[in-house]
Amino acid sequence: MRYFVTLGAREIPVDVTPLSSGGFDVLVDGKRVSVDAVPAGGAISLRIDGRIVDVVLDGRPPAVGFAALGRSGGATVETDRSRAAHLPHSIRGARTSHDFVVAPMPGRIVRILVCAGDRVEAGAPLIVVEAMKMENELRASHAGAVAEIIVRPGDAVEGGAKLIRLE
Hints:
Strand content: over 45%
CATH class of the largest domain: Alpha Beta
CATH topology of the largest domain: Glycoprotein, Type 4 Pilin
Shape: elongated
Structural class: mainly beta
Number of helices: 1
Order of helices and strands: EEEEEEEEHEEEEEEEE
Largest sheet: 8 strands, antiparallel, barrel
Number of strands: 16
Distance between the termini: 31 Å
Number of domains: 2
């Protein structure tokens, strides 16, 4: 199964294939890793290429919060099917562009680092969203111009909410 994991402005393709041994063959952004997963109380204990990582998840896809290795944050996790379910019927199956910066999970807008009309490079910081007591700086996925800022500092947003439109 192919998943699309978005962390900030970066989308990472993840292909997961169950193995007969109970583990998983996982291809993360083109790199192959071996993964075993078992429930561990309120967490999931993962063995990733022999290294143990306990992950606590909060929420349900597409917006998921996580804590692992002393860090926490948010991600959007989608499949082709879940993406298609959110498209209007008239454009399902059509190629869409990623012109919006979206909230990776529910949170509050802390700072907007750009203005409408600004030109930005890929990876440029655009906006800061606070989620799970962590500030997350969201970055441009591609070079372009800031066409519209949809939110204001202090606004509460849901996971997947459109924040900034780039052109």
